[in-house]
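WP5 quarterly update. Target: Homocysteine S-methyltransferase. Source organism: Rhizobium leguminosarum. Length: 302 aa.
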Amino acid sequence: MSTTRILDGGMSRELLRLGAELKQPEWSALALINSPDIVREVHKEFIAAGSEVITTNSYALVPFHIGEDRFQNEGAALIRLAGRLAREAADAATDRKVLVAGSLPPIFGSYEPQNFQPSRVQDYLKVLVENLAPFVDIWLGETLSLIAEGEAVREAVAATGKPFWISFTLADDEADIDSGEATLRSGESVEDAASWAVSSGAEAFLFNCSKPEVMRGAVETAARVFRQADARIEIGVYANAFEGEQGASAANEGLHDTRDDLNDDAYSRFACSWAEAGATIIGGCCGIGAAHIHRLGKTLSR
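Structure tokens (predicted):
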């Protein structure tokens, strides 16, 4: 039995593969509007591939994607639908317990730490939390670019009584990879983010939506901080498969090309490296599909 908890992978390309229409600005939210059955099917495919935690398709249910008017008029219903579809898929699993993580995205855009608005963020997070709460087992603040976004998620979920995980995205241009020192996309250090996590009450501290090559260094740094603080916080990784440098563009500007060299075997080798460094929660982000998840789960279990 693997001691690593297996997450799901990226939702968008699996939706496309099964025939859903995705276009900007709505992106994966468009599948909830037009083809919710396909959303449920993607969840089921990840479960069949071995995922022990699946994530609600609520990442794009923010004004950044669906617009302020639609968020105010339809946001709550769409958020509830995203939660219900994930819950139904998880509860249909007969061979094991599958947990549902409620995705709480960066409200003002991915890879956009400069756009964070502390005076407004809770207005939007509150809608997500209230409408996902009946369906989720844990909260997942994901693709966060600065520590303040993590603190906003902590504050938003505090009254729910449910555990929360925080996942930061890392700077991953070639210079960042060559430097060997992982930083958040805000420029804040992983060490500072991990130190914040120690005092936050988070059950898990993760890194996502960055190239696989930057993840091991971040895991090693987090593990060191947690050892020194005697903190029992799990560490996780779910990398993306984006091609080229991402620092000059937002994660959700369009459909990024994905790497030809990052097949399921190559990704599973990265996953083994992260596990060796101390990660106990591993999955995939954009461009990492059910086949990748199946392979990494089998590899890690060995």
